[in-house]
Amino acid sequence: MMAKIFCIANQKGGVGKTTTAINLSAGLVALKQRVLLVDLDPQGNATMGSGVDKHQLEHSVYQVLIGHSSIIKSKYPSESGGYDVIPANRNLAGAEIELVDFKNRESILRDALQIVADDYDFILIDCPPALSLLTLNGLCAANGVIVPMQCEYFALEGLSDLVNSIKQVHANLNPDLKIIGLLRVMFDPRTALQQQVSGQLIQHFGDKVFKTIIPRNVRLAEAPSYGIPGVVFDKSSRGAKAYVEFGKEMVERIKSI
Ligand code: ATP
Ligand code: MG
After folding, report:
1. Cβ(45) to ligand 1 under 6 A?
2. Computed over its alpha carbons, how large is the radius of gyration of the chain?
C-alpha cells in the first residue's frame, strides 16, 4: 500500500497549520500508523516542534528540492513523536528563486516522495502561509488538502483564494488533488461568532467540514517549545484528545479516497 499524501495548507498565517501537522502526525502514530512529516516552511516550526533541531541539519527538504540530497538521506526521526521528518530551515527560502529555471519545478517533491511512499501509511506536508512555489510543490505531491481554519469573520473570504489555487493545480498539474476537508481549530464554543461562522462553513461545504473540532487549548501551544507534539506532551489534555480523534477521522476518510 502506498502512503496517502496530504498537504496542510492555508495561505493565511497563524491559523494552526503547523500545530495540525505535528499533532495529526503524532495522533496517527498513536493509532499505529506509519507517518512521514515534510516541513515545507522556511520557518522550520514543524521541524522544531517535532524535536529536530533546524540549526543542525546536514540534509533538509531544501537539498531535496534543488537535487543536492535524496529523500532517504534527508529523513530524521522525531523521537518524541514517533514519526519521521523531512526537516526545513531558513535555507529553504532560497529555493523559490533557485528553482525558477528548473524544468518540472512544481513536481520535484512529488517525484522525491514516490521513493518512500511504500514505507508509510501517511505523508503529511506542512505548507508555508503563501500560495508560493513551495506550496505548489506540496499541492502537486498530494492526494488531498487539509485546511485548518479559525472560525472568524473573514475566514470564508480567505478560503476562496485557496480553493481557486487548488482548482488550478487540479486542472493543470495534479488531477488527483481535492480538498479532503476543513478543520475547525482554536475553537471556542462560547463565542457566538465562532458558532455562527462554523454554521456558515457547514452550509457552504457540507461534509467537507471535518466532524472533529480542535479546541483552543494552551497545552498545544506550550508543547512546541519542548520539541514534543502536544498529543504526547499532555495526552490527557483536550487538545491532545481532539487531535487523536481527528487521526481516527482521517483513517476512516482515506478508506473512501
Ligand atoms: P504559519 O502560517 O506562521 O506557519 P500556522 O498556520 O502554522 O502559522 P501555528 O504555528 O500552528 O499556525 O499556530 C499559530 C499559533 O497558535 C501558535 O502559537 C500555536 O501554538 C497556537 N495554536 C495553534 N493551535 C492552537 C490551539 N488549538 N490552541 C491554542 N493555541 C494554538
Ligand atoms: Mg506553520
Report:
1. yes
2. 17
